[in-house]
Predict the structure of Prenyl transferase.
Amino acid sequence: MIIHSNNIFTSINNELLQLNNNLKKMVVAEHPILYAAAEQLFNAKSKKIRPAIVLLIAQITMKDKKIKAEHKRLAEITEIIHTASLVHDDVIDDCETRRGINTVHNLFSNKIAILAGDFLFAQSSWYLANLNDLNVVKTISKVITDFAEGEVQQGVKSFDNKISIEDYMEKSFYKTASLIASSSKATTILSKCNLDIQNDFYIYGKHVGLAFQIIDDILDITSSPTDLGKPAGSDLRNGNLTAPLIFALEEKPELSLLINQEFQNTIDISKAIAIIKNTTAIQKAKDLAEEHIQLAIQILNEKYSSKSIQNLLLVSHYIINRIN
């Protein structure tokens, strides 16, 4: 069953349209270059999975199913934080394109890109503070610390062929799952839910986030540059060893030679991708993602009616279906 994003976002379509409009209005910069950099980011195509999850959880956890203004603002904050992290990632990884358009540092400079990312983090913090909910501030602000931790871990393990799947999962939590988990929990705080419900949705978001990152890393190996919106094998080129490569190393130790040479030639990336595809690594990585999706679904199925969580379950399946 192929699930398209338009099918699962029907109930929040108006809110997502409003979010797209609001993002550009929220990022107000006095300097024209900074404004142009920020505008470039929000012109890029994005599935808006993170804010969509916030809005869907808001519907589930409000008795009248009505999404509050605070929920909508949290969804916007979540997307701004995510976008800020991408700007810094692109500088670190020296990516020329993202979502099919030129990256900020490629259009302007590394300095402008770093300042644009910092500016977005600062803007998100200001809007976060204006929600006037200390528990939400505490929950979301931890994410920015986690981003930094994830980047450091990724940098330390760069081109390290001894990296374990546990190392990879920990880094993936910091870089991806932390934001989805924390924003899911923060949504329930705004809905005045009890601690058990807050924790349920935190764990749901954590597992969905881990699955999302694993699938992204599979796509980096299996998709065309056109579909990715950036060159295939970017993770390998930058020394970021992900689940498919870690599993492939178990079957094809000769990959270590290419890793130790840091994929010096473009052909080395092609060789590595061909070797990975000739193992069971892609399937093992997909199985790992599926395991986390099932853990996320189990949390919802145990406590919530199937009708109320239907769209959130579809989001979970959509994440896995991206590689079908």
